[in-house]
Amino acid sequence: MFKKKLLQRKLLSVSLAALFAVGIGAPSLAHANTKEAVASSGTTVYLTVEKSVLGQGLIQAPVKVTIPDSVQNPTIYDALKTQFGESQDGMKHAMTQYGPYVSAFADKNETLYDTAQYQHKDKLPNVCWSTNKNQEVKTNATDKFLSEKEYNGVAGWVTTLNDSKDVTIASTVKDGDVIRCQFSLAAGCDLGYSGWIPQGEELTEYGYYNWGPSSSFLNTKADKSELIRKMANEGQSATNYDKLMNALNDLEIEQEVVDGLL
């Protein structure tokens, strides 16, 4: 299983065509900042859910989420449950021996993605794009969820905390932390992180991928934590909100460009 293999090897929460260089259109936002914290007690964190790797913008715009103070030692998982609920109508999750992980987010504006546009397709072996007995590939864009293994066998959700991928959603959070859930078609390598991807076309005797380490597919990656805080705090009233949104969606923007918008 994709999730179990990655969690077992890296203890990471890896569960969202890279953007074209010509620019980014205004994304549709399925969830507004409806749960922004206002003078409430508890632990307040910042959260986004992004599918920029598909060129489709965000599912959840930057938002402040306050985990109730009744929750002791709050985690990323608690923040996600606070924002999306526990009914699995907004977020689907599952459990492994290593803890919970996100398997899907509701995507009311889900649009079938043409994988021929994926600019990193040649960096993944062909076996990732086909179905075998243990690595199911899903291509159904009518269920209104963006799920792990959708489009290829290594696709899923990558969760980061303050720009670090070395976490699981059972990791604890504190006031001001930034949680990003980003869809990836390459275990995070197409988001600017190193990761684990299948090595070659051969499967193991049990029908699983031969996982191995890989460097990032991108030449640069910016830390957007401060940008996300600014967007959540100021909302669309920010004078440069469109530029901030474009910067958030640009996977290869330079750090100095991001910093210049703050």
Overall 3D shape: globular
Which structural class best describes the helix and strand composition? alpha+beta
Radius of gyration computed on alpha carbons: 18 Å
CATH A-level architecture? Beta Complex
CATH fold name, please?
Answer: Ferric Hydroxamate Uptake Protein, Chain A, domain 1
Q: State the helical fraction.
A: 10-25%
Number of domains in the coordinates?
A: 1
On the 0-100 scale, what is the average pLDDT? Answer: 83
Largest sheet: 4 strands, mixed
Q: What count of helical segments does DSSP give?
A: 5
* Amount of beta strand: 15-25%
List the helices and strands in order: HEEHEEEEEEEHHH
Distance between the termini: 41 Å
List keywords for this structure.
262 residues, alpha+beta, Ferric Hydroxamate Uptake Protein, Chain A, domain 1, 4-stranded mixed β-sheet, 3-stranded antiparallel β-sheet, 5 helices, 9 strands, disordered N terminus, DUF4430 domain-containing protein, signal
